[in-house]
Amino acid sequence: MKKQIGQHYMPLLWGTIAVGLTLCAAIPAFTQDATYKVGERVEAITLGVWREAEVLEIKDNGYYVLRYLPDGESFWQGSNLIRHIQAKTPTKAPVQNPNKGNAPTKVANNAAPNLAAKPQPKSIRELFGSREPHKIKDSKAPARGAITAALAKKYFIGQTEGLSGGKLYLLENVKLEVGGGVPYHPNLGAFEAINVRVPLYPIRGSYLSYQCRNLVTEYVGPRGKNANRYSNPKATGYCYKNTFGDWRCFMADPNATSPENARHNVAPPQ
Fold first, then answer.
1. Which terminus has fewer CB within 10 Å in the chain: N or C?
2. pTM metric for this prediction
3. Rounded to whole angstroms, how far apart are CA atoms 106 and 86?
4. In this model, does residue 51 exceed pLDDT 80?
5. What is the Cα 269 distance to its own chain's centre?
6. Least confident of 63-67, 79-83, 108-112, 140-144
């Protein structure tokens, strides 16, 4: 029975083999890509970057054995991921001057300037069209005893002027006087890191405060009109010493922003 079944399917088997041979004969044999040669320097791509490599061996399946230069390990790479070395813009080497001990002469920089990049102003004067804010190095004097009016004025100006929230704050025409020391009491208000063992000194006076807008990033009007000015004719506050040994002085007039004391679009202090 098995013999009969085998004889029955034998013509079909030979027919299948014949068809397969015909199809194989119709497919052209792989032709080795002769574009790249052993010892040739090429470029192979890896991780999206073309790197220089040397052809070590040509395989008969469309692959090459390469070695990244100068001293990389060998690896396999398909021909579709290899290319001839691309032409690069030549860079002039420094010219040696034999008359000056082979000192290299300057080579012109052919790189095109970035016309879109504009130099950004760095100083407060350039950003706000004003003078620089006053700064103080330290505020520890006096180490003992009452603070003087001169020191209170210096600390008040130096600790108030400066940048905050993208705006510049400046003071002008500051006048103040210092009262007698009083012991700390919570009803006087909140004082950051206050040394409660040292008396507080009330201060009062007057000044002009300026809030200046940035000419580069914020203000778009005419130059010299980028500030708001507030008059503080009846300013009051305190000078106190904190636990770090530094004096802190502040005062303000609660009516400074009222219509009679506020002026908008004025020139900042110069």
1. N
2. 0.57
3. 28
4. yes
5. 31
6. 108-112
Output the pLDDT for position 120. Answer: 59
Nearest to 62 by CA among 36, 32, 40, 42: 32
Strand 227-241 relative to strand 201-212, pairing: antiparallel
Helix, strand, coil distribution of the chain in percent, nearest 5: 20, 35, 45
Counting every residue written for the chain, the total comes to 270
Least confident window among 53-57, 86-90, 225-229: 86-90
Domain boundary assignment for the chain: 41-84, 124-266
In angstroms, rounded to a whole number, what is the distance separating the alpha carbons of residues 25 and 12?
20
**Residue 15, SS3 per DSSP:** helix
Q: Which residue has the higher pLDDT, 45 or 246?
A: 246
What CATH class has 41-84? mainly beta
* Separation of alpha carbons 144 and 40, rounded Å: 84
Of 40, 228, 223, 248, nearest in space to 140 by CA = 248
Cβ 253 vs Cβ 237: under 8 Å: no
* Phi, psi (rounded to 5 degrees) for 193: 55, 40
Tokens of 259: 């219509």
- Structure token digits, residue 41: 């320097």
